[in-house]
């Protein structure tokens, strides 16, 4: 069975380096940054960035970064994510922190100004992927919050999803669950941005910008007319060269398979990498597919090549990217030196080198995002009580952890019965001696044997109950530990969201702890004590 590319890539596998250049070599990082420094940010994009970022909390550091983007030789470290409810999974914050730390490291290494930028993936239309989040509750099952929006199945980019009155339910649930925490003021920040009339994208961006205001994180939403106009040439090229793109992606997929790696994003022959929004920019979007010499949409008329070219010039927001085209758009618009991504993103970036070459877009470094396990007092206490040395042990199968706990405690369900058997044999021998000394003791000896048998059986039963109780306590501890560090077999950072940790430990102190723990260009999962 094919393996995930990212696992081999992050382990430094030589075979994986052939598909995605390594990020560990300092000279290679400097060369990529130097190449990126030769590109400039277009004036319309600079203006769009300034306009978008003025909507967030004031940040002198962000203003300095925006000024730097207008200066020749400045490069960018980009990361990005779908705009999940209340920032979505914890790794959203880890990505932002890793982009900041990587930008700082590249700036130190190369002497080039380097700006961290968060690309808001607002073109996506799958609301079910972002409309919920999970909040841990120590000692209780996690709380799942969901945004019960109307027209859930509409294929509308999330950029156009406006928050309605339905937001009050998840906010109220957060208040009830976290209102007594020492830093519950964080809920005020959420209420400021997640409110009726705001878009989901704007709310996400407002909270993230506030958390990283001191670091000057710049945010970019591509679903803006000025940005879409700059993207139009890439859409045109992707459609005009669709056959060559099909061939390149097919060959790349076969090469990955031959090397033992799985293809992250399956490629459908005849399907383009471009989505088209039916009716208007806020309408449902569908992937353009080539049929009988024209571009077809489900349930819509065929569109000729010249019609699409004219539409792209007149209304560029009618177009948007697929997962495989989004990185090329990002690196067409920005002087990107590095992209900070998670394992899934590294998997599909491995598919894209032929497209970068075909469309003549410089490919940046692919750098792993930071990965953490957040450890609280109750988590460390559970590890100690279970005799587990490393938090990573919590990710082992539950049955294995229970066996290890039983072995550490020296528990043996058969031990008491064996001891009772030896005691019975020894006592029986001595009682037999008494019976032989005086036949009149036969009946008292028989009664003693019955009494001893009952008592020994009672002791064996008590031991069994003690073991069962020990097992019950251990099982509860294992369940609580795994519920904290790997709920449902999922990594903590992919399941839980920020609000609980921000309310308990403070949003800004938590961000600072994360920033201090990030090691640029390092793929290790780190344990972070809170």
The number of helical runs is: 22
Strand content: 5-15%
Strand tally is 13
Structural class: alpha/beta
Approximate shape = elongated
Largest sheet: 5 strands, parallel
Rg over CA atoms, rounded to whole Å, is 31 Å
Distance between the termini: 39 Å
Mean pLDDT value: 89
Helix content: 40-55%
Q: What is the spatial order of strands in the main beta sheet?
A: 5-2-1-10-11
Enumerate the spans where pLDDT stays under 50 for 5 or more consecutive residues: none
Oligomeric state, counting identical vs distinct chains: single chain
Which features does this protein show?
51% helix, 22 helices, 13 strands, alpha/beta, four-stranded antiparallel β-sheet, five-stranded parallel β-sheet
Protein model, in words:
It is a single chain. The protein is built from 22 helices and 13 strands. It is elongated. Helix content is 51%, strand content 14%. It has 530 residues and is α/β, with parallel strands linked by helices. Strands 5-2-1-10-11 form a 5-stranded parallel β-sheet, with helices on both faces. A hairpin with a 2-residue loop joins strand 7 and strand 8. Helix 8 runs antiparallel to helix 9 and helix 16 packs antiparallel against helix 19.
Layout: helices, strands, pairs:
Elements: H1 5-10, H2 14-17, H3 26-37, H4 43-54, H5 60-69, E1 75-82, H6 91-110, E2 114-121, E3 132-137, E4 140-146, H7 168-178, H8 186-193, H9 200-211, E5 218-220, H10 225-240, H11 242-258, E6 271-277, E7 285-291, E8 294-296, H12 305-314, E9 319-321, H13 326-333, E10 336-341, H14 343-349, H15 353-358, E11 365-368, E12 371-375, H16 377-386, H17 398-408, H18 415-437, H19 442-485, H20 492-495, H21 498-505, H22 507-517, E13 525-529
Parallel strand pairs: 1-2, 1-10, 2-5, 10-11, 12-13
Antiparallel strand pairs: 3-4, 6-7, 6-9, 7-8
Helix pairs in contact: 4-5, 8-9, 10-12, 16-19, 17-19, 18-19, 21-22
